[in-house]
Amino acid sequence: MKRILLMVIRNIFMVPYAWVKLCYRAAHVDKYTEEDLYRFLRWIDLHANKGGNVTIDVHGLENLPEKNGFMFFPNHQGLYDVLAVIEACPRPFSVVAKKEIKDIPFLKQVFACMRAYMIDREDVRQAMQVIIDVTKEVKKGRNYLIFAEGTRSKQGNHLGTFKGGSFKSATKAQCPIVPVALIDSFKPFDTNSAKPVTVQVHFLKPMMYEDYKDMKTTEIAALVQKRIQETIDKNVSRTM
User: Fold this and answer.
1) How many whole angstroms separate alpha carbon 206 and alpha carbon 229?
2) Phi, psi for residue 184 in degrees, rounded to 5
3) Where in the chain are the domains?
4) According to the model, what pLDDT value does residue 237 have?
5) Deepest of 87, 117, 161, 184, by most Cβ within 10 A of its Cβ?
6) What is each CA distance from 157 to 4, 30, 47, in whole angstroms?
7) pTM score of the predicted model
8) Is it the case that residue 226 has pLDDT exceeding 50?
9) What's 2-239's CATH class?
10) DSSP label at 95?
11) Looking at residues 147-175, what average pLDDT do you find?
């Protein structure tokens, strides 16, 4: 809460303008291209991070696939995660998020601008439809982010178990899978502090369809989890 207040106070003259523009875009997404909406979100994100003493330390941009139509699979540390990736990634992407956060102010408008899918984990039919819809959109060239843990880890930089079902859209779309290691992403919003913090975002080498086509989704999940945890273990000392 302290950091959010700091973000608002330090951008006090920009906040009313940005909020009105954000709400309008969220309610009229069809009037804008995906690139326009994403550029606007990054503009807000950059100002918020600067005001809130958050520095994004980006690694591995060269690992982003040359063509669109890929999927990010980061570890899930907190409410700030998507905002960290937005600043780090120059390429537009959307999100598959759990329905429980769909009404949180600001995140609600951000996800609307991203044309995100809200998934009901207790409704199997709805969850399957989301998989189908995301598969179709990735095939058309949209990029998506899914948290394979399903819920945020309560253990800081230690991962929860990645679920194989989270990778079904990627395997059906036969698209590149980009593991993303987030380090200290829980600190901006999930700790009651406004002290300067650096969040590391590591885009790891993508797994192409040829790399995983003979693997089960549970095996893909375990491999992606292993690669992310190894990256975190190698780099976490930099933030200590």
Assistant:
1) 16
2) 65, 25
3) 2-239
4) 62
5) 184
6) 22, 38, 26
7) 0.92
8) yes
9) alpha beta
10) E
11) 90
Predicted local confidence at residue 240, as pLDDT: 47
Cβ contact 72:178 at 8 Å: yes
Q: Which two tokens stand for residue 99?
A: 């329905």
Question: How does DSSP classify residue 42?
Answer: H
Residue 146: what are its φ and ψ, rounded to 5°? -130, 135
**97-121, pLDDT tens digit by residue?**
888 777 888 889 999 999 999 988 7
- Separation CA 81–CA 74 (nearest Å): 9
Higher-pLDDT residue of 116, 151: 116
Cross-strand partners of 54: 197
The residues near 153 (Cβ < 8 Å, ≥ 6 apart) are 75, 76, 77, 159, 160, 186
The token pair that represents 23 in the structure block: 């709400």
The span from the CA of 47 to the CA of 123, in Å, is 37
Percentage of residues of the chain with pLDDT beyond 90: 79
Residue with tokens 């790891």: 204
